[in-house]
Amino acid sequence: MKKASLVGAFFVSAIWLSGAEAFCPAPAGLVRAKVQRVVDGDTLRLADGRSVRMIGLNSPELGRQGRSDEPFAVAARRRLETLVAAGDGQVGLLPGREGRDRYGRTLAHVYGADGKNLEAQLLAEGLGFQVAVAPNTDLADCQRTAERQAREARLGLWKRSPVLKAQQVGAPGFAVLSGRVNSVRRNRGGVWLQLEGAVVLHVAPNWMSRFDMASLERLQGKQIEARGWVVDRSRRGALEPGRDRWLLPLTDPAMLVALPR
């Protein structure tokens, strides 16, 4: 697609981390900022009042409104606190092509005082999922490499696979899921990849130029892995006949991979 011992464990982790960090080097011209507090594993509150959502990283959710913390949510926040504290609360920001999200938070890549990309560090330790949401995908490749290292080493979230089968999707929110593509169709509404379990992947018309249509069509009958934020279309009222309940929008090819046979 387009366009064991504790000592041994330490050295294994060091090898993984050093490799991951090398793929997301700090660019010139970072904007320096002071962190007031770490909100969670992927969000910072700055001393100037801004909230920063780290690009390319989705950490587990902390429990709110009576809900329990997701696995590794507290560990992700504490690790980010440690990384920020190592630079005396100073970080470097690289703003995204799209500068704000729908909640008004600043979207940026975050670097420590030592020049290391904090998203890559957390991904390499298995404390978050790599996400590629267009147009902020400049570091998608190096972040994917960092996550892959954690996945292969079964660190953090990857100690027990968090990947859901499409038939297991039962709630909206972020998910990494796998399943067979039953059909691929294109119409004025974009491209639709029908999976098992009432799940459909959707590429909207404004993002279709980022994908290769021939590659998408070749996914029919194949096993794939997709990630992103699942939407429950039944919340809008009764589902129309023939429509799947669960919708996962795709904005970049990095959100979808074909699995080996």
In short:
By secondary structure, this protein is α+β, with helices and mostly antiparallel strands. The chain has helices at residues 6-22, 73-85, 118-124, 140-153, 213-217, and strands spanning 31-40, 43-46, 51-54, 57-58, 90-100, 106-111, 129-130, 164-165, 173-187, 190-195, 199-203, 223-232, 246-250, 256-258. The longest helix is centred in the first third of the chain and has 17 residues, at 6-22.
Give the topology string: H per helix, E per strand: HEEEEHEEHEHEEEEHEEE
* Count of individual domains: 2
The rounded Rg comes to 19 Å
Largest sheet: 5 strands, mixed, barrel
CATH architecture level-2 label of the largest domain = Beta Barrel
| Strand tally | 14
Looking across the biggest beta sheet, what order are the strands in?
Answer: 1-2-3-6-5
Kindly estimate the percentage of residues that lie in beta strands according to DSSP.
Answer: 25-35%
Helix content: 10-25%
Any low-confidence stretches, pLDDT <50, length ≥5? Answer: 1-18
Describe the structure using short key phrases.
OB fold (Dihydrolipoamide Acetyltransferase, E2P); single chain; 5-stranded mixed beta barrel; 261 residues; 14 strands; 5-stranded mixed β-barrel; alpha+beta; disordered N terminus
Describe this structure in words.
- This protein is α+β, with helices and mostly antiparallel strands and 261 residues long.
- The protein has helices at 6-22, 73-85, 118-124, 140-153, 213-217; strands at residues 31-40, 43-46, 51-54, 57-58, 90-100, 106-111, 129-130, 164-165, 173-187, 190-195, 199-203, 223-232, 246-250, 256-258.
- It folds into 2 domains: 6-159, Beta Barrel (OB fold (Dihydrolipoamide Acetyltransferase, E2P)); 164-258, Nucleic acid-binding proteins (OB fold (Dihydrolipoamide Acetyltransferase, E2P)).
- The protein has 5 helices and 14 strands.
- It has a 5-stranded mixed barrel with strand order 1-2-3-6-5. The chain has a 5-stranded mixed barrel with strand order 9-10-11-13-12. Strands 4-7 form a two-stranded antiparallel sheet.
- Strand 5 (90-100) and strand 6 form a beta hairpin.
- The protein starts with 5 loop residues before the first helix and ends with a strand.
